[in-house]
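User: Predict structure, ligand adenosine-5'-triphosphate.
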Amino acid sequence: MHTLDQLNRGELKGVVRLQLSENLTRFPNAIFDLADSLEVLDLSNNNLSDLPEDLLRLKKLRILFCSNNQFTHLPDVLGQCETLEMIGFKSNQISTVSSESLPTQTRWLILTDNKITSLPDDFGRLTRVQKLALAGNRLRALPDSIMGCRHLELVRLSANQLEAFPDALLELPRLAWLAFSGNPFCAERDSHDEFKTVNFRDLELHQVLGQGASGVISVATWQKNPFGFSESVAVKVFKGEVTSDGYPEDELDACLAVGNHDNLVRPLAKVAEADCSALVMELIPAHYTNLGLPPSLVSCTRDTFPVEQVFPIEKIAKIVEQLERLVTHFCEKRVSHGDLYAHNTLISEDGHVLFGDFGAASKYTNLSLQQQQGIEQIERRALGFFVDDMLGLCTERDKSTAVYQSLRSKAFT
Ligand SMILES: Nc1ncnc2c1ncn2[C@@H]1O[C@H](COP(=O)(O)OP(=O)(O)OP(=O)(O)O)[C@@H](O)[C@H]1O
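Assistant: Predicted complex:
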């Protein structure tokens, strides 16, 4: 994080990346002094509502983040910034997105949690866009031209006002991670009576285990355990607000709809109270570790891995086999996971997989057979990308094996 003082004193000359958060209400002019070098500008968490019309003077600007500001429209000047390819305006008040505001070379567009009712008709001219985050808006439909966005791989549409499933998405040849729960066309949430409902006051929360976008997970023991669950459990208490993947209530609904599987963290019970929604689940044993790391600004939609991460091909085959069985289970339950990634996968030393994070999951039982098949194909593409990622971790020696070749035929690149 930098300061306005540093900027005004000329101390930041030559920086490639600038991050300022000081309740700014106006774009600081001194930023233009960095035009020769500035590639990444992060003005998130300020009070900005517009950008200067000569922003294009920042000739090298590739990445612009303005989340948590007061924008009511996406500034038109963005469309004239010749090198700008990543745009993030999450949690503003944006209701209008003009065609002029979208640079043709956009790869990454984050407009989560705004008030957008429609996208420009010619959206499909963004033929390079790979990642499109629109959850928590007021979209009623998508422009059919979106079919032209042939590089789209990740799309978030949850928590909108879509009246019908956007069939145009089924035409996208690379789409692999899709979230669409919490729209009027979706099936209603289920009460999941097959799972016990417990009182929140019967649980005693202890140390925090982790925190996802949608809730906080803690170890808990029972004050009262009428159903005889294990003495120690994990409890995810949902925060209630919309996340970049959708509504927490839909996460709980989808997670319970998928139910039990050998490769899922076992859901045990739910808390469904007016002021508290929570999921009680089995504790993940401490020796399970993350298989991958989330995507970076460079990898965009693809997971990243520590350079030293290497696996023998037999272990990779075992991991892939478990994921394949899991995807078959998702399809049988008519739930799309929407976030099938190594970074959501935990593995034990001997290669047993525990998979999680239903934040982007969407139920699709009520859709037409053709739509259901299309959605399954999208999830299987994510599995194909996953296989490709796993093969990237294979030892050089194992690349000549028959197992490698057989897995290669399942990979999507
Ligand atoms: N049943 C559990 N037992 C032990 N630890 C858990 C359990 N569930 C979650 N955790 C811990 O909490 C962290 C957050 O989990 P969660 O599934 O909510 O979110 P995430 O997938 O990491 O994040 P996001 O939803 O933002 O993508 C996990 O990385 C893990 O460390």
